[in-house]
Amino acid sequence: MRSAYRVETVRAAEAELMARLPGGALMQRAAAGLAAACAGLLGRVSGARVVLLVGSGDNGGDALYAGARLARRGAGVSAVLLGSRAHQGGLAALTTAGGRVADDPFAVVPRADLVLDGITGIGGRGGLRPEAAAVARAARSSQAVVVAVDLPSGVDADTGRVAGEAVRADATVTFGTYKPGLLIDPAREYAGALRLVDIGLALPPVPDVEALQHADVARLLPVPAAESDKYRRGVVGVVAGSARYPGAAVLAVAGALRGGAGAVRYVGPAGEAVLAHYPETLVHGGPPGKAGRVQAWVIGPGLGDTPGVEEVLDSDVPVLVDADGLRPLDPAAVRARSAPTVLTPHAGEAAALLGVAREEVEAARLDAVRELAGRYGATVLLKGSTTLVAAPDADVPVRANPTGTPWLATAGSGDVLSGLAGSLLAAGLRPRDAASVAAYLHGLAARRASRSAPIAAHDVASALPGAWRDVTG
Ligand SMILES: NC(=O)C1=CN([C@@H]2O[C@H](COP(=O)(O)OP(=O)(O)OC[C@H]3O[C@@H](n4cnc5c(N)ncnc54)[C@H](O)[C@@H]3O)[C@@H](O)[C@H]2O)[C@@H](O)CC1
Ligand SMILES: Nc1ncnc2c1ncn2[C@@H]1O[C@H](COP(=O)(O)OP(=O)(O)O)[C@@H](O)[C@H]1O
Ligand SMILES: [K+]
After folding, report:
1. Is residue 387 a known part of a binding site?
2. Collapsing DSSP states into helix, strand and coil, what is residue 79?
3. C-beta 303 within 6 A of ligand 2
4. How far is the CA of 172 from the centre of ligand 3 (A)?
5. All domains of the chain in start order, with CATH
6. 323 lines ligand 2 (CB under 6 A)
7. Total-model pTM
8. Nearest residue CA, atom 40 of ligand 1?
9. Which residues are involved in binding AMP (predicted)?
């Protein structure tokens, strides 16, 4: 599991540690890790041309001390000073080691092998200022590897917002812990490959944001025991599709069949289309209350204008509401339920539920998903470039999904996801686990299916067993 903590928590942990260590020790730990990571990226340090972009705070100090270490190993190191001042100890260390201050950034940046972005770290506010932005653009268009110190300058560490211009890094070397912005788009996209340097911080047990990794998912996946039968493995009910959108029913069932439930019960008018693709489905014309017992319901994909979610919400089993089912959703009705509810909106649906503009949700995904989860008393999976999962309890970490690909932005892939998540719910996973494991497998399946080429939603469903094996193998 990757854990991320907000700036306030990081600062408190730093202060506590600094009080116990000799002055400057923490920055030296950071700089040593940073220099080692840069050396690894450069391959050969001696003779390499390294440019440091140095802001006025400690982030610039880290860059200067790391630059001094690289200069001692034979790199040609130039510092571009972008703030009103620069870390004095760091600057002295750099010049002592043979580095120099560059007068003209545009003379050194285009010729660099590696650019170290030390403009701002966790103390940064807002986007880059114009002078820094111009230098950052020059770095991006050069051949240099761009390495962000702690986080790309210009991104918001706590939320992942990018208000204005920011450094686009190939890699980010972050200290002590991941920051939420490193795991959440749009900022995540600016960070490149992430590397964590341990500087000995003692952090609270519960992070603000976390990201599952293969081993975490493998632990959570349902595995049938020797004595299992299809009913014990869980039956998932899928209420989806309409005369107009039969395909949504097929795709939701496709996801549900690959999610670990022992049987999939489809309820609705698209039974013929479903059976034509998946004869193993149990089909019923409806209504859901008459279709037979299920352990979890999925309702919404392709239902059109008359989704009729009330009857399903009245049931006493977990319910996942997606797509058309989300439109008329009353917070009071969801809050009153005795069993858990999972909502899976994309940014547009989340915006409609919150009564804000779609752009507002996309710019501040973390705030939006927390707000919705609190308002509905539900687990909320917010789809998009970084899928986020929030629990109704605000003290539980939000999960940021690390898998996926923009090729997933294709009609019907959300239907596959809701079927898959519902199947995991029926198999007994807790709502937050079902939603985040589903997003993880779905993103992995999309990558497997795509390998950088366009994919259709049914390709994602077909790739799910392979993704499952990747995780468990
Ligand atoms: N506190 C510590 O012990 C440690 C801190 N570390 C480093 O220190 C960083 C935090 O240092 P600081 O608190 O000094 O803050 P930063 O260095 O992140 O930035 C603060 C400075 O940047 C200026 N600034 C803010 N927004 C700006 C913008 N948009 N454009 C240009 N300038 C802007 C501020 O006026 C201030 O001078 C961490 O990110 C990390 O890199 C590491 O050395 C590890 C140890
Ligand atoms: N830019 C993107 N990068 C990665 N994944 C994306 C992006 N845009 C959408 N997705 C994913 O694609 C799927 C689309 O679902 P959704 O919007 O519900 O479409 P549909 O209703 O057509 O199925 C979701 O899993 C979502 O997270
Ligand atoms: K930085």
Report:
1. yes
2. strand
3. no
4. 8
5. 2-208 (3.40.50.10260), 214-472 (3.40.1190.20)
6. yes
7. 0.94
8. 59
9. 383-387, 414
